[in-house]
Amino acid sequence: MNHALRLIFTTLIVSASALAGAQTLLNASYDVAREFYKDYNGAFIAHYQKVSGKTIKIDQAHGGSSAQARAVNDGLEADVVTMNTTTDLDFLSSTGVIAKDWSKRFPNNAAPTSSTMLFLVRHGNPKAIKDWDDLIKPGVQVIVVNPKTGGNGRMAYLAAWGSVRKKGGTDAQAAEFIARLYKNVPVLAKGGRDATTIFLQRNIGDVLVTFESEVVSVEREFGAGKVDAIHPTSSIVAENPVAVVERTVAKKGTGELAKAYLDWLYSDEAQEIAAKHALRPRNPAILKKYATTFKPIQLFTVNDYFGSMAEAQKVHFNDGGQFDKLYSVK
């Protein structure tokens, strides 16, 4: 073997062994965050190699957020969880999978980004849908996620309920509105991406209630001009909380890397990536820079009308709760 070939061969062996020894991180996340984390992971891998000299690999697992939380609880060895509702992390903390004080481990209640619920309608808005009240009109079919299986569905339900309260309505009026709204739901989706597939690939429904960030994903996947985004008068702040999975990192020795991965979500570079995916950055300067993406909307929080997400879960989404009373399976 000549010197040049030996050099190439040695380099290949070194590269392969470096990759074999690389730490691997698994991020269990919600459905519609896959494109954001694909871009974020590439940027984080480059950043981490630059500051530490180490090569790492990051794998993703996506699905309805509650289904993901249950999978992690049942043994999926995710190092971090990045969800779209605090109830899924509260569930994991109640079973000892993540820290009890997970919301205090990172800034902003451990939510580096937030979102809100918008409407996606077919191009040209043939049903003239402008606000929440339009969703209960006869002949309007609404596609939403099942609040039992996904945070997307829970936030859509709470946004709809809260829209009545925001206008001065009572809880009884909100319950009546929700009952009428779900009568217009032909099928409940399992998760956010499933809802988009039902709406755009199966061509069911007139309006899709989903996260603001899904607008960008739809345009990238299906092409611009397929849908119009409608900003209702008011909507809910949907925080995207994150946590280290203590059970996994203790076993794999990835605690330091997992923390660094979540810490960097707050960096300027990561906040810019989030904004490009229509996730609302926590950094006010970056949020302002993307003012055309994040149009003005009257936002209310879960705490404003529901006490807390844990309380909302108990009252509305647990078995026998308000959702079960108001929705009959078709």
Describe this structure in words.
This protein has 330 residues and is an alpha/beta fold. It has two domains: 3-114 and 239-289, 3-Layer(aba) Sandwich (D-Maltodextrin-Binding Protein, domain 2); 117-236 and 297-326, Periplasmic binding protein-like II (D-Maltodextrin-Binding Protein, domain 2, 3-Layer(aba) Sandwich), CATH 3.40.190. The chain is built from 16 helices and 14 strands. The strands form four sheets. Strands 7-6-8-5-9 form a five-stranded mixed beta sheet. A four-stranded mixed beta sheet has the order 2-1-3-12. Helix 6 (151-166) packs across helix 7 (171-183). It is globular.
Indicate the topology.
Elements: H1 3-20, E1 23-30, H2 34-52, E2 56-63, H3 65-73, E3 80-82, H4 86-94, H5 107-110, E4 113-115, E5 117-122, E6 142-145, H6 151-166, H7 171-183, E7 188-189, H8 192-200, E8 207-211, H9 214-222, E9 227-230, E10 234-236, E11 238-240, E12 242-244, H10 246-252, H11 255-263, H12 268-276, E13 280-281, H13 284-289, E14 298-300, H14 302-306, H15 309-317, H16 322-326
Parallel strand pairs: 1-2, 1-3, 6-7, 6-8, 10-14
Antiparallel strand pairs: 3-12, 4-11, 4-13, 5-8, 5-9
